[in-house]
Amino acid sequence: MSGFSADRVAAVMIKEFKQLTRDRLTYAMMLVLPVVQLLLFGYAINTEPRHLPTAVLVQEDSVFARSILGAMTRSGYFELTAQARSPAELDQMIRQGRVQFAVTIPGDFTRRVARGDHPQILVEADATDPSATGGAVAALAALPTQALAHDLKGAMAPRGQGAPPFEVVVHARYNPEAITAYNIVPGLLGVILSMTLVMMTALSVTRETERGTMESLLATPVEPLEVMAGKLAPYVAIGVVQTVIILIFARLLFGVPMEGGWAGLSLGVGLFIIGSLALGFLISTAARSQLQAMQMSVFYIFPSILLSGFMFPFRGMPAWARVLGEALPVTRFLRVVRGALLKGQGLGDMWRELAALLAFVCVVTVLAMARYRRTLD
Amino acid sequence: MTLAIDVAGLNKSFAGKHVVQDLSIQVEEGRICGFLGPNGSGKTTTLRMLCGLLTPDSGSGTCLGYDILAQSAAIKVRTGYMTQRFSLYEDLTLAENLQFTARVYGLDRRAERVDEALARLGLTDRRDQLAGELSGGWKQRLALASATLHEPKLLLLDEPTAGVDPKARRDFWDEIHVLAARGLTVLVSTHYMDEAERCHEIAYISDGRLIARGTAQAVVDGSHLVTFHGEGPDVGRVAQALAGQPGVETVAPFGAAVHVSGTDRGALEAALAPWRKAPFTWREVDPTLEDVFIQLMGRAQDNVA
Prior knowledge:
The complex is a heterodimer.
Chain A: H1 6-22, H2 24-44, E1 52-58, H3 63-74, E2 78-83, H4 87-95, E3 101-105, H5 109-115, E4 120-126, H6 130-139, H7 143-146, E5 167-173, H8 180-211, H9 213-218, H10 224-252, H11 262-286, H12 290-306, H13 319-327, H14 329-343, H15 347-371
Parallel strand pairs in A: 1-2, 1-3, 4-5
Antiparallel strand pairs in A: 3-4
Helix pairs in contact in A: 2-12, 8-10, 8-11, 8-12, 8-14, 10-11, 11-12, 11-14, 11-15, 14-15
Chain B: E1 3-14, E2 17-28, E3 32-36, H1 43-50, E4 58-63, E5 66-67, H2 72-78, E6 79-82, H3 94-104, H4 110-121, H5 136-147, E7 154-158, H6 166-181, E8 185-189, H7 193-197, E9 201-206, E10 209-214, H8 216-222, E11 226-231, H9 235-242, E12 250-254, E13 257-262, H10 265-272, E14 281-285, H11 289-304
Parallel strand pairs in B: 3-8, 3-9, 6-7, 7-8
Antiparallel strand pairs in B: 1-2, 1-4, 4-5, 9-10, 11-13, 11-14, 12-13
């Protein structure tokens, strides 16, 4: 029995094929998943977002102001979603991340254009994710020469020639140098925590089922909630250690700014760790083997990377994908981390995201408890 | 007499398969009851229903005086259960496994109890070894020590000695008898006849039904089986010729001899008649428990067919 036998290869191959088709979930994962992912991510991901929410503070309601805003909207990059009544309100909108851009048109704009002293309009961009604002900022360059072309007639016509009638000052806030690492590194915190924590818990419970120790455990007086709490506690500690290490490296190696927001960040990290662990526990109640638990975890982690705004601008996605993204805890967590570190957001700025994380923790824990079987039925 | 196990009319189905059917069983306190039956006959399912790991579809009863449906928490505290597969943590040491059990049951004097259990097993010097490194026999003894650490009143053992060598099996059974002498009730499933004979009484189940119950002797007597022991050159060929003849219910080779059994003495003797000549010698013997079980199994197969 030596040499290479095609028959023996065939024997192994046929056996392998049969085993593959016997595990329905794996089979489905291999055939359905590529199609789902292709459609999902192919349509959802767009690296040059348009129609970005923009707030305006118009201190002068004039023909010129309306023309400028109209030109911005027509560029396709800006969508006017809010009117601020004061500079403070405008500032809050951009700090809380409700808009990507804040435009200020000063009070004596028309008069100064007429006088020919080239007034400025201020466009503040939330540049935490530089790739989200790049295209829009580039489009602003053409604004001064074109926006008022139709309005500068008659006596004003000379203002349309020569130097542009006004200037656009772009103020890239939170990440003025457009350093990608400032955006990616805090985001990595969310991705790394999900990857390790969801998978580790999903595997740790499934391992007990697979090795048969679950049967012994169930025969003891230990209650489901006790099992869950005891199993998850060590991983909470691991998650906290991971967070601290990532933050230290983010600061020392990548120079990520840390503007504050520690209260919100701590709360967010706590909720996110518990939520990820509870999700891992939930997966383990559905998976029958460690392999299945692994596959289900991947099924969760893929969209967490692609649809959460970690890799691609969240606002670049179509509405349906944003709805999906909003449901992912990573999306909320990324906003908390970036908001805290880059913008110094306080609890008041990020309570919506924290509430969403809390809701996720509650729903997943209840589901996991409901699905955990205290018998082998 | 007090009954440690007293259940009636237990039923359990999985995906339309009726695994346990109308099973009723009583075991007195302090007795070792052997639970026998072919693979897939419902032994494991019954044990799991008794300790609250499975909920019966119907039926009722008590374990240690607690209702098996409503008070499974109280039963769990007072019951030790040893699964068929080794189900301690292979990546924990012997001492760590026992400490875990001690904590889960909320025992006092944990360190002492663990030390005592290890000393009883003679494993004190291997306490820091990983449980996964133990041989099969030692694993089972460790599992038994773990299942009895909380001093249960009832011990449910599911094929505890499968795949264990004879010496280790003997040690294991000696330990079970020591425990029973202290008043512990034991329900133990097994496929080994020598183990069945070491039980105070046995229960035989087939296709989820209890079909024989009592002491080993009572089960043998109750079978009304007539057994002939045949010897001679090439007696195996004779055995093949006899199998399936009217009156011959089981034919079982025993080394160079053969046991032929049936419940109808006349028909059995008629079938044997052509072979009752030299070089073969035949004599009637008391049927062994094994003869009885093989006959019971054969009958069960007939029922299925």
